[in-house]
Design brief:
Largest sheet: none
Distance between the termini: 21 Å
Structural class: mainly alpha
Number of helices: 5
């Protein structure tokens, strides 16, 4: 209920009504606003520290580029097979290191977002299911129609990539909008 002289804040975002008392002790409403700001800044800080893709790129270099360039330039494949095997192992190791860094960062982002959701009641929007379902259907159709010829499999895999790209685009836009909402609320 809004009293005279108070400005309402949306209760859906977890901000209380502004207090009209003039005491020097902080009220519970200012504590919750400070708590929200700290949680929002923590979330935004963690989101901004996304791991760099250098390990992934180095892994792809050792996994794909280096062995194929050796195979193309060498006359005898059996002489360079040990070098290519070591290159494959290094490539898988670098890709594994990159995926471990990314997964630990994503777990931190997810826990900070869930903390923000539970304490301030700001829901994280869901992705639309239709592009994900269509990607799965086109992948399965490509695998089933592979018996008719390779062209049909390529068409199915192409549509699977298109719908997966649409899902990734929606995910990217959702994360940008949520981050913008949190940063706008943290500034208020």
């Amino acid at each position: 209920m809004v009293q005279v002289g108070e400005e309402p804040y949306p209760e859906s975002i977890g901000l209380p009504l502004r207090s009209t008392t003039w005491d020097s002790t902080p009220s519970s409403s200012t504590k919750s606003v400070k708590s929200f700001r700290n949680e929002a800044k923590n979330y935004l800080t963690i989101r901004s520290k996304k791991p760099k893709p250098w390990w992934l790129l180095l892994g792809l270099l050792f996994l794909i580029v280096f062995p194929f360039s050796i195979f193309i330039t060498s006359d005898d494949i059996f002489e360079v097979s040990a070098v290519c095997f070591i290159s494959f192992i290094l490539g898988f190791g670098f890709i594994l290191l990159s995926s471990l860094q990314y997964s630990s960062w994503w777990k931190l982002v997810k826990s900070a977002r869930e903390t923000l959701e539970t304490k301030s009641k700001i829901p994280f929007p869901d992705l639309p299911n239709l592009p994900q379902i269509l990607a799965l259907i086109s992948l399965l159709a490509g695998l089933i129609l592979q018996d008719l010829g390779g062209f049909f499999a390529l068409v199915g895999f192409f549509f699977c990539l298109v719908f997966s790209g649409i899902t990734a685009f929606y995910d990217y836009k959702r994360n940008i909008a949520y981050d913008r909402l949190i940063s706008d609320l943290a500034r208020k």
